[in-house]
Model the fold of this input.
Amino acid sequence: MLETGLQSLPNLTVQQLEYLVAATDHPTRAAAAATLGVTPSALTQGLAELERRVGLPLFERHGRHTELRHQATEVLTHARRVVAETRDLARWAAAQRSGSAGVVRLGTIDAVAVQHRAEAIRAFHSNHPEVDLHLTVAPSGSLLEGLVGGDLDLIVCVEPVRASEGVAFTHCFDEPLHVYAPEGELRRPPSQWGPWVTFPSDSHTRAVIASGLANAGAPFDVVAESNQPEVLREMVRLGLGWTVLPPVAGTTAGSGMAAARSEPVAHRHLVVGRREGSPPDPAADALAVVLIGPGAGR
Done:
């Protein structure tokens, strides 16, 4: 017999992979089953069949709960990608059958939704009444997770420090970041700036801020965190520390703080993100063009 060295592929179904993603993302099997519209027993049977076809145990029991085994993370990564791409295909097929553009799920950081692209989003929504536009406002890290997981079709976020596998980014615009101090504490050299109230440690903007302050020769002693610029402004007004914000958030009348110097300490790059290999979606493509704006690109 001639041996080719090729190994037969496991006969996995998209439904089984969807069961795995749901069981991992929810605290109980019952909650996971409810989101999928199946019974807990059907979910458990589907997961057992998936384990049989993969040929490896995927879960381990801890008391009354089950957890994904560490060695099963590769299976979960594959499952998330297949489920997300299958959802893309299903939405595209539905739009083609109905002759409409269907649903576009957009995610942006707050500064984009409220300030920089608010009018563009409003105009798109008004000019495309056939498009069911869903808007999610969240930090950049959460938006990327939603995009990769298939919960969002299009995002505008701060460019991550490290490339995200399976995501294509297009430059949108750059935003300056300025140092703000409580009024009366401005005349200090950078080596005496701070302490700082700033974004959480997993924030893309915080990574840009940390790099900019290091280049300026300023220490970065963080004493408080918040994702909300208005909360950071209030912390500065109360004298808890200094902060770094874009001008649209920092130059607010009556904030009790002022820019420590005229030039920005850094710039954050805002990008439009799409999943690589997604089926064509005319509505999402049109919205991306509106969000990127004229003359974009670096």
The chain has two domains: 14-79, 102-298. The CA atoms of residues 229 and 249 lie 6 Å apart. Confidence is low (pLDDT under 50) at residues 1-6. The first strand starts at residue 59 and ends at 62.
